[in-house]
Fold each of these.
Amino acid sequence: MSELRRILIVDDSRMVRASLIRHLKGVYDTREEGNGEQAWQTLVLDHSIEAVISDLQMPVLDGFGLLERLRGCKLKRLQDIPFVLISGDDDQETMERAERMGVSDFITKGISATELKTRLGNLLQFVDTRQSLEDARVHQTQDPDSGLFTRRYIELQSAQALSHALRHHADASLMLIGFDNFARLTEQLGERKAGEICLKFARQVADKVRREDSIGHFSPGRFAIISPGTSPETCLVFAERLRRAVSAAVITSGGKRLDLSMSIGIASVLSDQVTSAGALIDLACERLDLAVSSGGNCVKCNVRETAEPVAPSLGIEQALEFLFAQKSESVRQQLLPLSERLLPFLLLLQQESGVDMRLAEVCQKLAERAASR
């Protein structure tokens, strides 16, 4: 015989509780409490309760107080639990207040057994349907809205890549990419607009990764890339290129330029000696959090100092983008190679204008500065 679903009945009248219990006997398991405070304690401890039938007027904590606690609770099972209010002869204003607070349904104390069981059955069926949809969404491989892989799929791919890496003594890396100050960006633009900006970036990245790599949502403002057979050194070069591209990008909203930057945490099977997908993901998360707490706009990984790649030289167009974005430090670090590339143009400009720009002296000063570092 299957276990009956449990309903909590809350009323300071023993007669009312007894009547409702008789109505539900044989179809539902019941538990009873005499006031809202006792009911709250019971709901926190008893995870088997699936719905609440509560009176409005009760001592210690009334029906409104209990409903408010449930809808404001951090426990999702209590936030969403069906709450049926015994309305009695309450006025329309009282019922409207209960609806605003999130009541699921109303019944009267004289309700028939058939109607009560029908009402509860409909509410619990709705809960079951919603849970089935949520479960299906968690286990699907691609988000229908974005086309990107889901976090669940990334976790499965991480486990598969790690297993292959350990069997063949190969490497596999996970990059966790997050926009700095995403909460502030969401507050500034709204959740929908902030999500659209991040999604647009993720789709651009998806076009640049290998076919064997998988990119997907990880959490709001964060994306993950699992790269089988890829070393952390290779990931670092790719990550730095992404980071610089976002820093230099000119993205506007409402006519104002957005100050966007990103941080990236990288974890790899061999260099980090991890033996589970969970450990690989957790380590990438820790490094991303470290990058953010260090001020953001940086990459954290376990790469030997001798193997740390030299940052690729800036192109002229990218250098101009940095300057227009008022981020001159990245350009200042590569003034010498940039000036050498511009020198033929400047010499022609000097020749055509007839103005001595003292280019030889400028180049010499830059060379001396570079040598002294």
Amino acid sequence: MSTKHLDMLGVSAFCESMAMMVHAGIQTDEAIALLQSESREGGVLRQALGEMKTAVEQGGTLSEAMKSAGVFPDFAVRMIGAGESSGRLDDVLSRLSRYYAGRKTLSEKLRGAVTYPAAMLLLIIAVLSAMLTIVLPAFRAVYDRLTGSLAASSYAYIRWAWVFCAAALAVMALLAAALFIGLLLWKRGKRDALLAVLEKFPRCRAILKTNALYRFTSALEIFLASGELQDDAVLASIPMAEYAPVEKTLRDLSARMEEGHSIAQAAYDVELFEPVYGRMLLAGERSGSLEQVLERLSELLAEDSGHRVDRLVEIVSPALSGILMVTIGLTLISVMLPLIGMMNAIG
């Protein structure tokens, strides 16, 4: 068993390839052998495929082979096992491929939303540090060589420039420290503590909720496609939301379903989705196309989440750039005013 795991893109590619071959009627062991021959030498997937091929040749199922390889997410293994039991393996594999590809896309977008402001913060800190350690001392040295009332008055402007730069640098350093601590908490598994801070900001809370709903809806769609009963599918999909406020609403939804309400009606009653999405779900359930509507709803939630992240970046990035430009502008004006006064006095 491998100690490494495939990333979401790797899982998506595996599921897509297997779905195409299963749909074409290729036997599982042959499909695995084909994938093994095309995979990168020495890679995690190639080693896992070798172990899976042996397990399948010994009479194991695809899900059992994936579990023994130890590189696939438990969710994917469980879904493929359910797909094998219900005879819908190719459909489940296709949906899993889209699910992990979508999660990878959102993950990259969120990473970019953090990386760009982080790079801007480092740039601003570097520029302001240079202003405090190089530019302002250079102007002070010029004024030190001058005498008279003009030179003496220039020190007031220099002090103002120092205040502008030092205040802006302190604020940027605090933001950078907060970002670093947040990343550290995330990497060390303190996810709940970080989310508790982020959800205090309305825009961040909306992104977290939309992401959680996307993960839940995508998981629910796959569970239903694999043949799970609605009640069991909802309960199994709740942990996939990975966000406590949404999980609480989902437990209320599950309780409503236990009282005899349908999944779409329960979701509408607890206001799980926005009204337009809730009505979509009701219409899909009444028309017998619930799985198709859930698939479309997952796509809409993914798009909505991406747009929200983009809008947040569009707000943060100009704000940071504005702080940098205003600070540098005020600083330069402060140190140039005495020179302008001297030139007027001389001329």
Amino acid sequence: MLLKTHKKLWIPLGVVLFLVFVISSIPAIWGAYLLTRGTGVALSGVTGTLWNGRASLASVRMTDQEYSLGQLSWSLSPLSLLTLSPCAQVTTKLPMQQFDGQICAGSGGSVKLRNADVSLPASFAQGKIPVPIQGQLSTHIDELELRGNVLLKLKGNLTWNGARVNTGVNWLDIGSYGAELADNGNNGISAKLFQLAGPVDVNLQIELKAPSGGKVTGELAAQQAFFDTANARDILSMFAQQDRVDETGKTHYRVDLNF
């Protein structure tokens, strides 16, 4: 009876070891296929195995524009193959631009991102901002799920360090800011933006709707001398109205913008 029990244990163990051997021998091009399928990611110079692979150059296409990711490497989770939802720890690296997180293939062609850290220049988001900006964006994503270009889930946070804005006359240092990110339940993004350091107090609620449009509501406040020195009145008049001056001398602007 004991011998039969041992045989029953050895059979599945042998199958697992065989699968590990087979997977470790599969060329990396198959791993590249899993990473690029439906993600907008393109890879070249692929080496290694399905288990651990590397691409000398990676890029991603977003909203009809292609962005370089630099070198990319991945490490596939063996157990995820058994659930038919392969997951890989993926790392990319460029100067001032890095990514490290887990990417999984979900059901129905969806892609899931978990426990990911992203760092990139603020200019990456320039297309969404009406004025030139500089600084460094850092994001931690607890959970993100996409199906094509449709957002299904989002939870994370964002920081904008060394934030600078071009007023049309000069570059203005405005400090550092943070945001809490979530999906709005309708394939859009909801964000709460606040000040971390700097001359401008910020308390804004931002909603980006799908497939387009959105709104920004809340308040900005700073010493009026700062707004005057920055020649910011014309810019503020585009999306905010002066509200009040508080006991500390700060001028508050009410923001209520639809786009």
